[in-house]
Write a structure and sequence with these properties.
2 copies of one chain form a homodimer. Chain A is an alpha+beta fold. The first copy, chain A, has 2 domains: about 5-85, Arc Repressor Mutant, subunit A (Orthogonal Bundle), CATH 1.10.10; about 90-140, Ferric-uptake regulator, C-terminal dimerisarion domain (Dna Ligase, domain 1, 2-Layer Sandwich). Chain A is about 45% helix and about 20% strand. Chain A contains 6 helices and 5 strands; from the N terminus they run H-H-H-H-E-E-E-E-H-E-H. The termini of chain A are far apart. The interface of A and B includes residues 105, 127 and 132 of A. Bound molecules: manganese (II) ion (MN) (2 copies) and zinc ion (2 copies). The first copy, chain A, binds a DNA duplex through helix 4.
Chain lengths: ~140, ~140
DNA sequence: TAAACTATTTATAACAATTATAATCTAATA
DNA sequence: TATTAGATTATAATTGTTATAAATAGTTTA
């Protein structure tokens, strides 16, 4: 599963003429295997054993490259640092306001809202962003003593 | 209309024991009258004629105070600076990817999505965030030569 | 193959939004 | 009036991210 994701991702890089360097391979591998939504710094730190001389700029640069070819999505939350999501299928996120956990969930696209917004504002709609905030089961459990 | 909004806002401050200083009065007035979604720096610059010595920290501090008592909502968009919305009624935003214009629009709350997300993830849902991205009529017009 | 060119990485400096700190000022209270 | 708490100011610090330039590695051309 993750192997085929990695293979597909490497193919995408080849097709778009982006060189596959050891650093890029490792960042992609980490994104796919982590099954989470790491920050650039988390990726940087987790790879410093393997690449002691890797620059943090390399992580940022390559995440930007991956975003540009559609391999990852960047998730921005206010002041904190961006998180990166290996782009498998369309999905939304629900975020715990207590511990910051981000969980995927699927829901059909919000076509109706997009349509109405376009109608009342005259905008040409491209896409939307939606996420839900709340308290995760772990944190809710801890609240009850 | 804006007068009553200002009056209500000042009442809210009184009720919550927040002193009404000239700076706070001016920031609130600006937020209500601007009918837009200014950044802290825009507010700061627009008031420097009236308050030549006002510190930018004062703007940030007071916007935080206003947010904490529920008078304004902070809108965060990735790397750029936060924008602030005087909190009238619940509404969503549609944003032009070309010029950055932010336009309000109304839509009933997305209760169904919240409910499903809660069901499949076990989260206790608090609220959600949704905005739509596209190209505004002005920018779409310019594209056609 | 050698030379030239291009992409990538590294190290480091710069940037920009925001926050922290400490001193000063203002207003409320005793 | 003296005391206290709250607010503002000026400035420094922080932090995530980007820019820059030199070094390295890979690719293409002669
Ligand atoms: Mn995800
Ligand atoms: Mn608004
Ligand atoms: Zn949690
Ligand atoms: Zn526009």
């Amino acid at each position: 599963m993750t192997q085929s994701h990695l293979k597909e991702a490497l193919d995408t890089l080849k097709e778009t003429g982006v060189r596959i360097t050891p650093q890029r391979h490792a960042i992609l591998e980490y994104l796919i295997n982590s099954m989470s939504h790491p920050t650039a710094d988390e990726i940087y730190k987790s790879l410093e054993g393997k690449f002691p001389n890797m620059s943090v700029a390399t992580v940022y640069n390559n995440l930007r490259v991956f975003r540009e070819v559609g391999l990852v999505k960047e998730l921005t939350y206010g002041d904190a640092s961006s998180r990166f999501d290996f782009n498998t299928s369309e999905h939304y996120h629900i975020i715990c306001e207590n511990c910051g956990k981000i969980v995927d969930f699927h829901y059909p696209g919000l076509d109706e809202v997009e349509h109405l917004a376009s109608h009342v504002t005259g905008f040409k709609v491209k896409h939307h962003r939606m996420e839900i905030y709340g308290v995760c089961p772990d944190c809710a459990g801890k609240e009850v003593h």
